[in-house]
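Fresh eyes needed here. Kindly weigh in on this sequence plus structure tokens:
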Amino acid sequence: MLINEYLQLRGTAAAEQTRQESSPKAAETQPADSPFAAELKSLMAAQSGAGNAFTATPTTAEQLEIMSGVNFSRHAVERINERNIDVLSGEKLQRLSKGVELAESKGSDDALVIVDRTAFVVSVRSNKVITAVDADDMQGNVFTNIDSTVIM
């Protein structure tokens, strides 16, 4: 939905509500849903299971953030899934979080944090994992645009 359509629906709903409130039988004649409410309900239904502000189902990135305190980019989540990187075993996420904190305490902007056999490229400034690489995919790779490496 375009923002203009949203605003138009919102304005229509507000005008309709004002008109109905001025009517003596407003409570009896008020429709069950205004166009805005109907549109909002349809958006909420369409978004179910997508892990957003309309639902209580968190996305994988949100789950990882809750468990570690570090944000994960969409790209990082895709790489973790594609490469079948096990980030949930042991205390890997807690160690990643401690590695990011250590890099931040040393003034790092972008760091390579290695936890066990997994490398995470992290934007320390934004507290976000940019990508993840497991040991099998690390060989022959060059990690650029980092100013520090933390081995946990």
Observations:
- The chain has seven helices and five strands.
- The helical segments are 3-22, 26-29, 35-46, 60-68, 74-82, 92-105, 135-138.
- Residues 26-31 have pLDDT under 50 and may be disordered.
- The beta strands are 71-72, 110-115, 118-123, 128-134, 148-151.
